[in-house]
């Protein structure tokens, strides 16, 4: 004797599949909105050669004359931004 599926079981599985589909589509929509609304992260900018030179001078790694000479060389080559 074969077991018959009841109408209640068929209704349960129909609703369960519908809920799963709604959850999957809703989750995909939520993920898409979340990814598009996140602020774009800028890549970190590197310090300019003049910034590095100024930091080294401020840290006492070079004299005022060395700083002036290096800054003049940077300006000659237009490396400072």
TrEMBL record:
Record InterPro entries: SHOCT
Domain SHOCT: 49-74
Pfam families recorded: SHOCT
Name of the protein this chain belongs to: SHOCT domain-containing protein
Species of origin: Kribbella sindirgiensis
């Amino acid at each position: 004797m074969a077991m018959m599926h009841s109408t209640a079981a068929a209704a349960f599985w129909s609703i369960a599949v519908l809920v799963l589909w709604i959850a999957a589509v809703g989750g995909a929509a939520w993920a898409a909105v979340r990814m598009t609304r996140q602020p774009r992260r800028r890549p970190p900018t590197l310090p300019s050669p003049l910034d590095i030179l100024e930091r080294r001078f401020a840290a006492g790694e070079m004299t005022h004359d060395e700083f002036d000479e290096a800054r003049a060389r940077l300006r000659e080559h237009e490396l400072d931004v």
